[in-house]
Write a structure and sequence with these properties.
80% of the residues lie in helices and 0% in strands. It is mainly alpha-helical. Mean pLDDT is 87; it is low at 1-6.
């Protein structure tokens, strides 16, 4: 035993031995994982996990036996765990499902745009004071309190007026949709 080992405790000696073995065999574990996984970033990720597991389980390793073989068995198990985790975290949609979703989005977008155009036509048909109220509240983003203060009306009066105007707009859009009116 070298002189410097005489000063090391059993635990420190074991730690030093672990670091030495880990360093000596790292390239071998890397090549082993590369042959199984073929993507360098993934291999690095699995290799880090492997090194942590090797450290945690190093007390189970019997010095004097084949560290490389033991570390490769741990690497193989870590690679399998990584693959299972990847398989669970990825969603796999069929082409048919994706086509259906895309078609539905196109249809909804078309309906949304149609409703938006009809709503704009209905807003244009409102009396000026209602158009002004809608603009202040929904285009300018004014608070009800501010609108009430500017117009000299109560909060309740503004809330009721907005409610009636929204009902009018909803009815107008519904009528136009039912009548098949395009804008």
């Amino acid at each position: 035993m070298p002189d410097h080992d005489l000063h090391l405790t059993g635990s420190a000696h074991r730690t030093e031995e672990f670091v030495r073995l880990l360093g000596q065999t790292r390239r071998y574990r890397f090549a082993y994982l590369m042959s199984l996984m073929n993507h360098r970033d993934n291999v690095e990720e699995v290799l880090q996990e492997t090194d942590l597991v090797l450290w945690r389980k190093f007390d189970d390793f019997e010095l004097g036996t084949n560290f490389t073989a033991w570390s490769c068995r741990v690497a193989f198990n870590q690679m399998r765990a990584w693959r299972q985790k990847q398989a669970r975290s990825r969603l796999h949609f069929s082409d048919e499902f994706l086509s259906t979703v895309a078609s539905e989005l196109d249809t909804r977008t078309e309906r949304y745009n149609q409703r938006l155009e009809l709503l704009q036509a209905c807003v244009n048909s409102l009396p000026d004071r209602h158009k002004s109220l809608i603009r202040q509240r929904y285009t300018d983003g004014d608070k009800i309190e501010s609108i009430a203060s500017r117009t000299g009306r109560s909060l309740d009066a503004i809330y009721r007026m907005l409610s009636r105007v929204r009902d009018t707009l909803r009815d107008c859009v519904t009528r136009k949709l039912e009548a098949g009116i395009d804008v």
